[in-house]
Amino acid sequence: MSLTQIREITPASRLAHVRYAIRDLACIASEVALQGHKIIPLNIGDPITFDFQTPTHMIEAVHKAMRDGKNGYAPSSGVQEALDAIRGEGRARALPTFRMSLSPPE
Length: 106
Known about the structure:
Blueprint: H1 21-34, H2 56-67, H3 80-92
């Protein structure tokens, strides 16, 4: 007698219109790259693959935040201080900027 049962899991109907936005952004990034623009793929789970070494001060800051219970999810729109720092780094490196608007599916 088998102890394992295989059963199909049916998603709840309320999930019918849920989208995983990072997939949409990955498609847009691919299109931008095909146009010859250099992109920095920050959505990939392994930044070391793209030669991003985590600076010591960031490791220490994350460790402190975790000890202090400040390691929950950030707002979907991002943390303003982090967004400003990323934009500043982009300007310092003279990286091109792109503005886009994503519309929800019809």
